[in-house]
Amino acid sequence: MPIVFQYADDAEREHAEKLAAARQQLAHEEMLLPTWEELADEEREKAMVEAARYLRAGRRAGLYDVDRAQPVTTRVRDTNGKPIARDEYEAVLRTWIEKNGTGERLALLDRAELSVVTALLDELCGAYPKERLGQFAREMAMKLNDRGSI
After folding, report:
1. SS3 129
2. I need a surface site. Which of 54, 70, 80, 108 has the fewest CB within 10 A?
3. Tens place of pLDDT per residue across the chain (150 aa)
């Protein structure tokens, strides 16, 4: 009887299979159990479901993230048209401020616009709270907030 289990996406299924196969290899090496390839299809499927549940539990516990790819920007592109890493983008923005931020201050925003820009930066910070880009957004929101006495 086939096991009914809904993977979140193809990546979760792939990661569950890799985890289950690696776990089975360890069991084979330690206890002379069958290898992953020697298991029946139903046994492999059952092991994959168990592995997927462990992956989900680990993510929920904050132990790891399934997607280890470096997060990239959604709109900013490099000269080849590819998205850049968000950490790199944060570094570029910070460097730009450090190099160009010493000059005459211009009143470009009215109070309502300043409130909106600050709110948008706060939203960016909330979307990426553990990333440098999110932390930079928070710093900028606080600076603008302080200047505008909002």
Report:
1. coil
2. 80
3. 667 788 877 778 888 999 999 999 999 899 889 999 999 999 999 999 999 999 888 888 888 765 555 677 878 888 988 888 888 889 988 898 888 876 777 777 888 888 899 889 988 888 888 888 989 999 988 888 787 655
Take residue 148 and report the two structure tokens written for it: 């505008």
Tell me the three state secondary structure of residue 105: coil
Q: Is-contact 55 19, C-beta < 8 A?
A: yes
In this structure, what token pair is assigned to residue 36?
């992953």
Conformation bin of residue 99: beta by default, left when phi > 0, alpha when psi is -120 to 50: alpha
Other CB atoms within 10 Å distance of the CB of residue 4: 6
Q: At what angle do helices 10-31 and 41-60 cross, to 10 degrees?
A: 110
* pTM to 2 decimal places: 0.50
